[in-house]
Design a protein that fits this description.
Length: about 110
């Protein structure tokens, strides 16, 4: 029986291997520096539960950060909240500029804050 190569189909696994994962930090996380617009040198201030011992401190939990965490750009040393690093793109519904990765207020159910 001819294998996939001989039939000229090519295995799907190869395509999966060749396909780049997320190409950029912006694509993966929706973040880029608002000043120099680079996304490959960002640092975020994270919280992590850590275990104390006589030998030191070791991370013992997941990293936590939010739009209110501090974010820094290695290239231009710009520093601001994570929310400010979300590029604005027009909302699909109302067209208002909306931070990437965030729902536009027009899509949220109305409720008193
Ligand atoms: Zn920058
Ligand atoms: Zn909207």
């Amino acid at each position: 029986m001819a294998n996939a190569w001989e039939r000229g189909e090519g295995p799907d696994e190869l395509g999966a291997l060749l396909a780049p994962p997320a190409a950029t930090v912006r694509e993966e996380w929706g973040l880029e520096c608002p000043k120099c617009h680079r996304d490959d040198g960002l640092r975020i201030e994270c919280l992590v539960v850590s275990a104390l011992s006589v030998d030191g401190v070791a991370p013992a939990g997941d990293l936590e950060w939010s739009n209110g965490s501090l974010c820094m750009c290695n290239h231009c040393e710009h520093q601001d909240f994570v929310l400010e690093f979300r590029p604005l793109s027009p909302c699909i519904a109302c067209g208002d500029p909306t931070p990437e990765g965030m729902p536009c207020p027009c899509l949220e159910p109305e409720e008193g804050q």
